[in-house]
């Protein structure tokens, strides 16, 4: 890929490696060597060396006659989120929420039809799925995802959910479009979302939106509980008010953070 206006300290090999990572887009999860080389504007031998290096480092894997990225690439995204200050803003509120409820709390953002966890304060619990920073789940079957989808215009929801999930999970709840739309309308109306074992057995959670200074939903925060230990009544009557308080505090602090003139933030492409 031809470049102009690069300085004497520019590392071309690093730039080419990032170019290769970026060619994997929704709908292009697995790509052949030739497809990667063409998309990145690289010679095939160069693209091959980069892909094999990414594979050795754990950022890519051979799959179905081609190459695919692995979830480890999301570690790079975590650095982006932390550079924005979201974790620093949210952390004390998440820690407070976990102390009050005795349950884990997470923040997630949308990536296609999935959610990706970008912040988390956990407590030791027996859970169906292990959740870490960078974990992804199908959005529609999670309380976090419902909140994020409800924050989108209806036509955008259709486009987002048309993208295949990259989570590798088949959720229990498979709603019709009518059921899906009714669920998201309810979330929009009440301002929070609930999921009760719709993703997998035992997973029950409630989530609320995090907003910037303009009111735009930028992320979602939840309280996650095990269905065998926490009833729906306890989740909604006791934990939900605490969650809404924490979400409001995070949003207010984030709006103040955004208003600081000297703060420089990257813009997502």
Question: Could you please describe the fold and organization of this structure?
Answer:
- With 269 residues, this protein is α+β, with helices and mostly antiparallel strands.
- It has 2 domains: 12-69, Winged helix-like DNA-binding domain superfamily/Winged helix DNA-binding domain (Arc Repressor Mutant, subunit A), CATH 1.10.10.10; 75-259, GAF domain (Beta-Lactamase, 2-Layer Sandwich), CATH 3.30.450.40.
- Helices cover 44% and strands 19% of the residues.
- The protein has 9 helices and 9 strands.
- The chain has helices at 12-22, 33-40, 44-57, 74-84, 86-101, 143-150, 154-161, 177-190, 232-259; strands at 30-31, 60-63, 66-69, 104-111, 114-121, 136-138, 193-196, 203-211, 217-226.
- Strands 6-5-4-9-8-7 form a 6-stranded antiparallel β-sheet, with helices on both faces. It has a 3-stranded antiparallel β-sheet with strand order 1-3-2.
- Helix 2 packs across helix 3 (44-57) and helix 5 (86-101) runs antiparallel to helix 9.
- The chain is globular.
- 33% of the residues are buried.
- Residues 262-269 have low confidence and may be disordered.
